[in-house]
Amino acid sequence: MAKLIAPASIQDYRELARKRLPRQFFDYLEGGAYDEQTCRENMSALAHIHLRQRVLKDVSQRDLSATILGERYALPVVLGPVGLAGLNARRGEVQAARAAKRANVAFCESTVSLCGIEEVAATGAQLWFQLYMLKDRGYAAELLRRAKQAGVKVLVFTVDLAVLGARYRDVRNGIAGASGIHATLTKLADLLSHPRWLWDVPIKGKPLVFGNLADAVPSAKSLPAFKHWVDEQFDPAVTWEDLTWLRDHWDGKIVLKGILDAEDAKQAATLQYDAISVSNHGGRQLDSVEPSILALPKCVDAVAGRCEVLMDGGIRSGLDVVKALALGATGCMLGRAWAYGLAARGEQGVSEVLTILRAEMDVAMALTGCTSLEDIQPSILLEQPV
Fold this sequence. Notes:
The protein has 386 residues and is of the alpha/beta class. The protein is 43% helix and 11% strand.
């Protein structure tokens, strides 16, 4: 790849992130489960959906704003939950939230963020909070209390983590599984070869703790301890009936994230959840499952307008967002896309990623004859995914 004068695409930010992050943390961000087939197919499925170019329509005025769960945003995107984002840049979640506020889009705080919900809320961003169902319901209830007190209105409840998918990159680079002197020295050499990151994150970015979990996992430097906590707390016994607990402890909007099957989408709508996010966890859970964009139309049909439908997985451009909207999504949750920008250039990088997405969406709308999001219908696609 030629040396960049200025990044022009999200792929350019990915390349900068790859260079600036220690290998172990870039692989954590980039990698997926097993052979990473679903990671690849999330993007390739989007690439194989073609837009229908139209001409000689008055598209001189274009409105990209969207209403998602009752709030008006400048774009139909949410900065979705990214675990350990604070390892990508100094106080990373705070920087990303500031960029989201500037762009007037929502930011979703992950349970396993380095910056706590209170610190992120102080940015004034439109804040969502993501939660897993923990075995320790008291701890989960306390997280919900903190989120509510911080002003969060939307809870994103992740439902596709009954067990943790095996991410072989994390095993190979020592984040998970490897131990002993050789593994320790390899990881140390990796960190020392990135002095700019060392200065920015471990030295200037303290405290390195899991801000929402500090009582349970005191140090973010101990990733094995974090993994042990995850293995102990993620609850594989959770069923639809258990979600009544969630309703009892949260009176705001609820998004169920990780729906990939039409039957599950139908059940979520029947139980009157406010939204679902059609998602395969970015290919990080069960490999060889359907790409999110191919599952999207079936889930949209299944909910039949009874709840909103978001989508995440493979979104790398504004064109991808337009394709998802054409197939029925209310909006898209970004993950790796904004994390690349954060790792590459901090808050500025996240802002630039959002600027790129906006510009790409704007061109795609103009050249498909759309002046507002309401115009983005299946008819702007040349062919339907099967």
